[in-house]
Amino acid sequence: MSDDPRIQSAAVALLDAVARRIEATERLAPTTNDAALLAAVARTAAMVLDAEAASVAIHDPTSDRLVFRAAAGPHGNAVIGLAIEATAGIAGYAFTTGQPLAIADVAADPRFDRTLAEATGYVPRSLLATPLVDAQGTVGVLEVLDRRNGTFSMRDLDIAGALAAEAVVIVRAGTAARNTTSLLRDALVDLMRSADPASLDEAAIDSLVSRATSGLATDDDDPTWRLADRIARLREIDPDDLELAIDWLDALLRRGGRGGRPGWSDGRA
Questions:
Q1: pLDDT tens-digit map of 69-92
Q2: Are 146 and 52 in contact (CB under 8 A)?
Q3: What is the pLDDT of residue 125?
Q4: CA–CA gap between residue 208 and residue 114 (Å, rounded)
Q5: I need a surface site. Which of 48, 65, 223, 228 has the fewest CB within 10 A?
Q6: Is position 142 within any domain?
Q7: 116 located within any domain
Q8: Which of 67, 31, 61, 27 lies closest to 227 in space, CA to CA?
Q9: pLDDT surpassing 70 at residue 36
Q10: Does 194 reside within a domain?
Q11: 179-229 pLDDT, tens per residue?
């Protein structure tokens, strides 16, 4: 690995571009087979536990956030794609401690983040949360909201734990190739090993990848990512509404093509 700062700077820029394309692909295509399976887990949890709603949030190690990947019940579509701090609210408590919990009155619990709940359009009265955990660690949280008859019991926690175990299997099977940092690092190591094994410097590669991906962890509020999250959910709406979204994007691109932002074009000669 060259020590020339110009070469390293160019390498970081290239890796940053690749990393952002990987992240965009993941955000724009969350409805893969594992997402469908996680949605089935959420629906099953809501049905078996006779609850109003359920959701599955998966930990994103790049941003250190919990990202809601599946949901069932009212406002389920609104929560998908929402990212929260890994320590936020009751979901964050279950994730960071690895402990399941059932709360009969969430409004009275200091761990409950009402602002976060309001952002999803659904504020629960009672809640069950159980971590998605196995021998390798914790990968997310299953939450079940508002049992219709009574409050959540210890038996309910056991049932939710069994469903969480199934979700862990789904997540482990689907995320191996999706960790941006690991993907870039492994690709560079393989490249250097095949080109010149004697010059392989894994510490230098780690440093380059870290520099290239550091912006991703703090960039979650970037309008580009927020737009990608919304676009990922467009496949769930009515085709007529989708046409309206396309018309709106065309208008935005025409506005940019008139000089609003360099590099934007409406496609006309």
A1: 999 987 777 788 889 999 999 999
A2: yes
A3: 93
A4: 40
A5: 223
A6: yes
A7: yes
A8: 27
A9: yes
A10: no
A11: 566 666 666 676 667 666 777 677 877 777 777 666 655 555 566 666 666
Token pair for 115: 């602002």
Q: Is residue 23 part of a domain?
A: no
User: CA–CA separation, 110 vs 107, rounded Å?
Assistant: 8
Count up the domains in the chain and report the number. Answer: 1
Question: What average pLDDT does range 62-73 have in this prediction?
Answer: 91
In angstroms, the CA 223 to CA 241 distance is 22
| pTM score of the predicted model | 0.58
Q: Per the structure block, which two tokens stand in for 195?
A: 């080109």
* DSSP 8-state symbol, 126: S
pLDDT of residue 265: 40
Using CA atoms, how far residue 245 sits from 113, 218, 231, 265, in Å, is: 32, 28, 9, 18
The proportion of the chain whose per-residue pLDDT surpasses 70, expressed as a percent, equals 64
Q: Give the span between the Cα atoms of 231 and 235, in whole angstroms.
A: 8
Task: Please say if the pLDDT value at position 132 is more than 60.
Answer: yes
CA Rg value for the chain: 21
CATH value at residue 99:
3.30.450.40
